[in-house]
Specification:
Structural class: alpha/beta
Shape: globular
Order of helices and strands: HEHEHEHEHEEH
Radius of gyration: 16 Å
Helix content: 25-40%
Number of strands: 6
Length: 155
């Protein structure tokens, strides 16, 4: 979070935190992490915000720390990113396989995978970071309800 503080003057970040996470006690740790920073916190579900005219396709970058599969994360995040922006996701050791599985979904949602990097954490586990460029407008029907995203992933 020190990095965030160092660049905050140049950014106008919006943190999307689900109401469920806040109810489970995440509010205290989250608020402590952003205390004193100039941020907006939206306590809502990403699939709802993706249909909000004030937020849809308005962001330069969307960064996800969620553990969902990349096809599902793309459906939640790409509708928030404007054309010319990017979605950045960190994935675990199976990241390359997830990226291959998500390529068509990413295309449907208006994205194009453009860069990746991998590294190892101090415990030796591998992580990948993927950058997905927003190259076209996301069709209006996306994102779908989260249960549908999980049950019927875009292929």
């Amino acid at each position: 979070y020190d990095f965030l503080a160092s660049v905050m003057d140049e950014l106008a970040p919006v943190f999307i935190v689900s109401a469920v996470s806040l109810e489970r006690g995440g509010e205290g740790s989250f608020k402590g992490a952003v205390e004193g920073l100039s941020v907006t916190v939206a306590a809502a579900r990403a699939e709802e915000l993706g249909h909000d005219e004030e937020l849809r396709e308005k962001f330069d970058v969307c960064v996800s720390r969620a553990v969902a599969r990349l096809d599902g994360l793309s459906e939640l995040c790409l509708p928030l990113v404007k054309v010319g922006g990017a979605f950045v996701a960190m994935k675990g050791s199976d990241g390359l396989a997830e990226l291959r599985e998500a390529e068509n979904a990413v295309r449907i949602l208006g994205g194009t995978p453009s860069a990746s990097d991998n590294f190892r954490l101090s415990d030796g586990s591998e992580r990948y970071i993927f950058r997905i460029e927003k190259t076209s407008v996301t069709p209006e029907k996306y994102p779908r309800k989260y249960n549908k995203i999980k049950k019927e992933p875009l292929k």
